[in-house]
What we know:
This protein is of the alpha+beta class. It has 19 helices and 13 strands. The termini are far apart.
Amino acid sequence: MRFTSDVDLFSDPTLHDPYPVYAELRAQGPAVYLERHEAWAIPRYAEVRNALRKWETFSSANGVALNDAMNAGLNGTVLASDPPLHRRLRSVLSEQLAPRGLERLRADLTTQAADLVDELFDKGEFDAVRDLAQVFPLRVVADLIGVSPAVRGQLLAWADASFTAFGPLNQRMIDLQPVRQAMHEWLESAGPDDLAPGSLGRAIYEAADAGVIEQASCPRLLSAYVTAGIDTTINALSNAVHLFAQNPEQWDAVRLGGAEDAFNEVLRYDSPVQAFTRTTTVDVPLDGVTIPAGDRVVLLYGSGNRDDRHYPAPDRFDVARRAGDHLSFGFGIHACAGQGLARMEADAILSALAHRVHRFETGTPVRHLNNVIRGLESLPVRVR
């Protein structure tokens, strides 16, 4: 049995609203061959989670993008590796981003978030993307990495270009190649002296000096901080404001302190990272469909998060839902190493907003189109 589709997952109309397309793919079967992309899509929750768990079968070693150029550049990175290399590379990130290490940041993040929200609340009107969601994570991550002010100004563009490069080699990716080239030039030229003492960025080079990793791995690990630590949180925060403006009763639940799982539901409902790919190492049977060994597979996080086989009424935004098992941070050995920081940032911002804001009133949102990341370009907001 073989299910096929000629849908373009990365066309402008699909990126504006991918969820009807995802529903069609889920209805077709557990795995659907995408003729335009010469790859398989896995759209259902259980199969996506299982693939993420079985790294030996769904390998990352040949890259996690949908084009050869990006995968060649990813070779040997923490994203595009399997154990034992992956375990060694990830240990450097995990040590710095472990809960105990992050806890020292909580008080400062809480203060920074409250100050920013107070400033925006006093203005009354602001853009939830440019003035809130971009400002806070960028400030936090840039401080943690320890980059100079000149580099800080490039981080947003670098992260956006990097994520869109995980999709196919379409015009959107081609247009952003100069931006990615500038990022790689900085990564290759940067050294410990370019990063603040005590920073996460400096710690990578210290790990190389200690023999934990090879010196050649330093730029690639640094790129994980530069890209993955920013865009996902930015889009999750702006999506949150948009969703709470559309669902004021859900915001009331957050303000009353009865929605500990609110951020998980934001992530489930509109996953910032929509998909990554893997390559099968053996023939994989999935409920009557067989994915041949060596084929590229697109794991659709955003689709799995809306699968009614796992979540009742998945198209309803409900902060009381127990959504902690969402796919938005991945799962298994490649689960997002920085998710603890992202949760801490979100908790600081949402708590500060809950303290000050009774209602969000939004203007017309502008969608930002990226091959992999789902978020907004602009969201005018009035608060009261």
